[in-house]
Target: Glycosyltransferase
Amino acid sequence: MTSGQGQAAILGRGDDAHDTKAAHFVFVPLNEHGHLIPAVDTALLLATHGALCTIVGPPSTTTRVRHTVESAQQSGLPVRLVEFPLDYAESGLPEGADYADRIEPMHMMSYYRAVALLRGPIERHLRAHAPPFPTCVVSDFFNPWTAELAASLGVPRLSFFSICAFSILCQHNVERFNAYDGVEDSNAPVVVPGLERSFVVTRAQAPGFLRGIPIPEWEELADYIERARAEADGVIVNTFLEMEPEYVAGYAEARGMKVWTVGPVALYHQGAATLASRGNVPAVDAAECLRWLDGKEPGSVVYVSFGSISQADPKQVVELALGLEASGHPFVWVVRNAGGYDEAVRAFLRELEARVAGRGLLIRGWSPQAAILSHAAVGGFVTHCGWNSTLEAVTAGLPLVTWPHFTDQFLNEKMAVEVLGIGVSVGVKEPLTYQAVKKEILVGRDVVEAAVRSVMGGGEEAEGRRRRARALAAKARAAMEEGGSSQANLLDLVKRFETGAAAKQVQGSVVDGI
Model:
């Protein structure tokens, strides 16, 4: 079936008797957990304030978020989920290989071509199901083809970022000011230009937006994405103003466009059953996991997870395990794709579980992370510094052990350690994932043990990190409440992109009022 022939499937309703004058946002997220989950949460928040939100994507997208969207529909929110089949033959993508965080690097460009081919079917569907006609396209920055979609529809387009303003500003500035000109060593320190405060990076850590990743045609895709970002009508970021005001303002000024901070968007689910199942079905029963935590002292458990993409090599699994065991602290450890290791590693993990029975809990697969982090027993988080994870830790008021693996994660580490003062680094200085030249970078058990003890232990430094983390959590929650900065930005978005108001945005610019 080709994308031109495939029929869109509307999965549930949620827009019955909707006000045709209200804003209608069409969300085009990227099907990768770190991008998809906050985009859908943002759509639900906008729907909470009266906007109609239509989320579009291939079956792999709808499968991951269907439960969350259906729950929102059942509560009366005006949100739709529309599925479009991919054209595997036309794009050269292997049949069924449509999960962005599982695709082999050799097929990544085919995946992006396949998703871009959805432009025509999406537009035809939106026109066929109007009114209400879309008033704004909200696109993950990884979907630059949505510039043509929005232009054809005659509506504004906003770029959605699941990355903090500090990270996107730093990446923007190293490219904008040619920071690496004349610097041959990818590990040579360079000061990020254009910032009042001095931050040192290397090309290996911050090569520029989507640069330095060894995937064929990636540079061409990066250029395409940059052109689309520069032509957007505004930016939505999953962060909150009080955490990084100077970097939000700096990015708005650098781009010359309005930046709406709307996070932490995960707070939409606070106290709801959907908190545990955002983005996927957990590999463990969430209630059982929380009962395990109920038996632990407040703030005594360290949670360990490296996200949905990166996977530790066998030696690193052993060193991490032994470091956690030696730390003496109870722990919950998410072991991604544990079945993919050889029998020796699987046997080692079984032996570890026997030794730490009652003190250590291993989760093999997707974890109900946000629910775990919000539990009173959890006192720290060993993280890869993906922005979703970092912001969820901030929301829960937790200090971090930072262990970046690739792309923006090194800058997110700087955000946690140097800007916010809530993190302790394990000292990784080069990418562990998507390496240009394959090399072994091993964090030893002694380093793991020391970092965990530093974050979870006593002393003025540890207490200071905890105080700062708790203060940030209070600000995060206040931002999402009535009168808060993120709440105000959500309301502003709904008002700006109402029918009639949105038409004026096309004629002018949404940068007014920065």
User: Anything to note?
Assistant: Residues 1-5 have pLDDT under 50 and may be disordered. The longest helix spans residues 460-480. The CA atoms of residues 25 and 53 lie 5 Å apart. The two ends are 46 Å apart (CA to CA).
